[in-house]
Amino acid sequence: MQISQGHEVSIATGQAVTFSLTDGDKIHVLHPQQIVAYRGAGTGRNDRFMNIRGMYRKHKLIQSEISGPCQFVAALPPGFSMKAIELDEQSDLLYDFRHLFFYSEGIQMQTRILKIKNMLITRDAIKMKFSGTGIIGILTQGQVCEQELHPTAPLYVDAGSVIAYPENANLELTVYGNHLASQHMNYHWKMTGHGKVLFQAGRENRRLENDINDEGLFKRILREVLPFGNVLIN
Fold it and tell me: pTM value?
């Protein structure tokens, strides 16, 4: 799949992503331990320490700069997939830095601080805004979905499933539905505004698998009966 600027990323069905870079291309890989095969000059890979912000957000010390021409294969964890997103000067989405797998040369990052209340509930303090022209690669659990926001009709999205949203969107952490429904769901972002929100559709797969595989009647009853039981009991 041709992306832009000579970057070529083919995503195989399964747990591997193949990168092909031409001469002059450079990408930054934030999980270099996932590179399982490499073809090219040995000098094409240059590892360096992340800055303090990157170490904190990714819980990693090292990132790799890969320069073309070369080809390499990166392994993905079971159940994860890669989404390549092309950015331009008008891009205004805010991302969770934990999802970032790679970014191309020419991409700059800026931090956006969340409100204190949202920090406490989501256990996340910072979102990242990418600017410039290039490509970023996002790791997701399951399929990536897009929904258009509306200025007045809110969209509710599971807070842990959101990948990116417009910087100027209006957000409120909440639950919805009747009393029983609101007690048995994760916190959701109530979103209004303009632009698209990206979210992953596979985050709750493990819970569904447990239900299907019969994890135990007593545990399931506790989940259904206790307020926020599906959140507190894993």
Answer: 0.73
Q: Which residues of 32-54 are buried (b: 16+ CB within 10 A; e: fewer)?
A: bebbeebebeeebbeeeebeeeb
Tell me how far apart the terminal alpha carbons of the chain are, to the nearest angstrom: 39
CA distance 79 to 201: 11
* Long-range pairs for 50-53: beta carbons < 8 A, 24 or more residues apart: 53/111
Place of tokens 């920090």: 119
Q: Would you tell me how many other CB atoms lie within 10 Å of the CB of residue 97?
A: 18
Query: Which of 58-62, 95-99, 203-207 shows the lowest per-residue confidence on average (mean pLDDT)?
Result: 203-207
Measured CA to CA, the distance from residue 117 to residue 204 in angstroms comes to 24
What kind and span of H or E run contains 200? strand 196-200
pLDDT, tens only, 158-173: 988 888 888 888 888 8
Is 173 strand, coil or helix? strand
Q: What's the CA angle centered on 145, arms 156 and 90, to 5 degrees?
A: 90
SS (H, E, C) 136-166: EEEEEECCEEEEECCCCCCEEEEHHHEEEEE
Tell me the backbone φ, ψ of residue 89, rounded to 5 degrees. Answer: -65, -20
